């Protein structure tokens, strides 16, 4: 005679298996989530670097700017990225100005301190301000 089990007996034997599987997958899910957030932060840092470089180059191209190109670049960026940003002028040629902005990419991944830096170079024409 074949051994028969009651319908609910199998479910009771598997009780807790789902919780164990979830706990086993939790570190993988956390790492994937951190990687996605880190990717977004890196993309945002790259975008902000371009924004800061454009603002700094636009200001550097003015004949009599009210603020320095560094200050203009930092003002155009988010404060938490602008703190570590550097702006260096380049040779834009006659009638143009070039500024290179460099921003370190912040890391939220544990035990990873340095993800490198992003750098954007922008060239803008020199403009003459019109007087009153």
From TrEMBL:
InterPro entries: TadE-like_dom. Keywords: Membrane, Transmembrane, Transmembrane helix. It comes from the Bacteria. This is TadE family protein. It comes from Streptomyces ochraceiscleroticus. The chain crosses the membrane at residues 20-46. Residues 16-58 form the TadE-like domain.
């Amino acid at each position: 005679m074949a051994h028969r089990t009651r319908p609910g007996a199998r479910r009771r034997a598997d009780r807790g298996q789902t919780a164990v599987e979830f706990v086993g997958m939790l570190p993988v899910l956390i790492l994937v989530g951190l990687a996605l957030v880190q990717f977004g932060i890196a993309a945002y840092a790259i975008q902000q670097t371009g924004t800061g470089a454009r603002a700094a180059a636009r200001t550097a191209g003015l004949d009599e700017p009210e603020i320095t190109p560094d200050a203009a670049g930092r003002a155009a960026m988010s404060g938490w990225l602008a703190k570590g940003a550097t702006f260096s002028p380049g040779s834009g040629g006659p009638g143009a100005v070039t500024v290179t902005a460099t921003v370190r990419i912040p890391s939220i991944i544990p035990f990873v301190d340095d993800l490198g830096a992003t750098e954007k170079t922008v060239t803008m024409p020199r403009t003459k301000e019109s007087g009153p």
